[in-house]
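Supplementary Data S3. Sequence and structure tokens for construct A.
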Amino acid sequence: MVTTDIPTKVIYERPSVLDPRVTHYCPGCTHGVAHRLVAEVLEEMGEVENTIGVASVGCSVFAYNYFDLDFVEAAHGRAPAMATGIKRVLPDRIVFTYQGDGDLASIGMGEIVGAASRGEKITVIFLNNANYGMTGGQMAPTTLPDQKTTSSPTGRDVKRQGYPIQTAELLSTLGGAAYIVRRSMHSSREVRRAKTAIRTAFEVQKHGLGFSLVELLSTCPTNWGMTPAEARDWIKERMLPFFPLGDYKVSSAVADLKI
């Protein structure tokens, strides 16, 4: 007789701060992974009830539907400005923006540079998938040289359209920035490293050390015209050489944090 009374051990559960609903993200998109990491970190820190998120315009526009915490929606590119206002009025809260590259590195570039230079005590989760995902896959400020998009069908010509903006490197030069890093979500190992970086970024804010941003290289299988597996490989083969992973600025105060 075969018994089925085998003890089981739960090794993973959905974070309670994530609503149990199907998201609008395309199959293979890593926005959902990023949501999970943010949710896990906030729960582990015990900060869910003390957190306010700011959603941007783009693929993540409905982020407020997926987190069971206070959320507001900002105008296109203005999430850092809105987060700044909220944090200054409610300095005891954890305030973060969740932005894509089309929102942050294009129309919102002035806002993110201003927030970082002022040392606003907010946290930015920045997803870089090298195109305008929501509106059809057009060329974005982060589109790679020679990368084909719906608005650059022959590939990005750097002589005409310039080079991609390397956001982490740019913001790391600003005095108010305390923690600026780039991670990726193309493998399990890198996802774990991304979670650690997100936790550090929130701790930087909790300790009042300045502006923090975690850039996450993210897949966009639909607009890239790839399978999810091919999209992960494309990050590794094409994006990493131009957007190297690493810690671009870690202030001495952040380095002294015991996390």
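Construct B, processed identically:
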Amino acid sequence: MSVEISVFTATYNRADTLHRVWNSLRQQTVKNFEWVIIDDGSSDNTREVVEQFAQNSDFDVRYYWQTNRGKHTAYNAFAGLARGDLYCSIDSDDEVLPQCLERMLFHFNDILAGERTEYAGIMCLAQDQHGELIGDEFWPDDFRDDVVGVLLRHRKLGDKGGLNRLDVLREFPFPEDVERVYVPESYHIHGYTTKYKTKFVNEILIQPWTDRREDHLSNRLGEVKNYAGTAYGLLAWPKYSMRHFWRNPKLFVAVTSAYIAVALASGKSLRRQYHEVESLAGRTLWLPLIPLGLIRYYTMRRR
């Protein structure tokens, strides 16, 4: 069966919240989609819960279990399994509005046919479970920029949703040399913005829950045990986004020196970092910041 959209949910011990995603998908105004759940090693009753969903759904529900390796590896697994040309990612404790997939598809198809290959996809607004807008709306200048540029322009962009091309996810996969850590989605976003545009839409279509659990992945970025994943989130700036350097030099200095420190703390030598940064502009920034990075590294060790 062909589908237009593959909905992706990575989950880990969230049997108690997956019903939010399922209920919101049951209410969608279009049905030509599949829901692909990548279970990243859950030890609760997630499998049984999803089996019940599948028996009572009028869309395909596909469940895959893998040993616990991290959400970033679940993204890569999904990219190899999904059947749609476009995908929408929904976290295992969130919801989308009933018209979400229909409107996302409308906005993507509204891009001129001859220009669609220039776009990674569309990005829309989000509201919390109380109906309050999360973060900023997109501003007029945003519509002429890429995702990283928009992020730099806003002090509080907040959660956003999107519909993206699956082939772009395959073209810019997540790293798999680290496991059981949280690698931010921003690593993938920085990568694809080097080549693709995004269409920004001031329409609320997703509904993340803001009463975040203590085990929410974003809480792990500052943890010592997550340094290997955090380093990739920091690396994305000098590796992919130096074209934006002059828009906020202080940020690039802070992030790149933090990358040096966190990467060292996770066992990556300076030689390894040099190869990871890749871009000439990024290396030009990284090299003189080694002393500052070392200072930050030794400060971290003394904590």
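Strands lie at 5-11, 33-40, 60-66, 86-89, 95-96, 119-126, 161-165, 197-207. The radius of gyration is 20 Å.
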